[in-house]
Amino acid sequence: MNALNILSGGAAQGLVASLAPKFKAQTGLDIAGEFGAVGAMADKLRQGMPADIVILTSAIITKLAQENWLVPASISDIGLVETAIGVRSGDPLVAVNDATGLRAALLAADAIFVPDTKASTAGIHVAKVLRQLGIADEVASRLRIFPNGATAMRHLALSDAARPIGCTQSTEIISTKGVTLSGVLPKGCDLATMYTAAVAMRAAAALQAQHLIDLLTGDDARGLRIEAGFLDVRN
């Protein structure tokens, strides 16, 4: 066995990557698997994709544990992740301090890069916010929808649109080269989602999976969590 298999929401990809060298030094294992929309990752686990560790929203982790896909005793919260606005690096930041500012920023954009609006945490929320702001129909043709937030942000970074912006988890914006965090969604439009890790019931490397969870949630990684965009649950 050369690698620990992971199924994770894209929100945790940057943090996992930052700890991968330490994990390999301590266990001899690389980290392999998939990062994507949380709903899609949960379905992959249910469909039998091999996994040792799963990192998804707390609500989905709870449901998967109830379905006997995860080891209940291993469940550990990593931290809260906010949904936010990103711009291409070098573009002016946009004002999203209140709902009015967010509405104006979205209307001014000629391309809006978002993750899956039916299977991802941030994408589902973006669709809700657009309806809430009364602009869903007006901006529908400008939406650029991708399977997950990381992919959406990579395409934002390379966009040749005049005024593109993106909306996804803050961690995905922070970890994408060529994209800058402009601000989290304002009160009334905001969303902070708890991301949680657990060992898969059918894990081939359960001890190593638990070790990675300990690294992700431990006090030594607090600075890395904050740098990656997690709001530390231990504050």
From TrEMBL:
GO terms for biological process: molybdate ion transport. Gene3D superfamilies: Periplasmic binding protein-like II. It holds the Pfam family SBP_bac_11. One of its GO terms (molecular function) is molybdate ion binding. It comes from the Bacteria. This is Substrate-binding domain-containing protein. It comes from Bradyrhizobium sediminis.
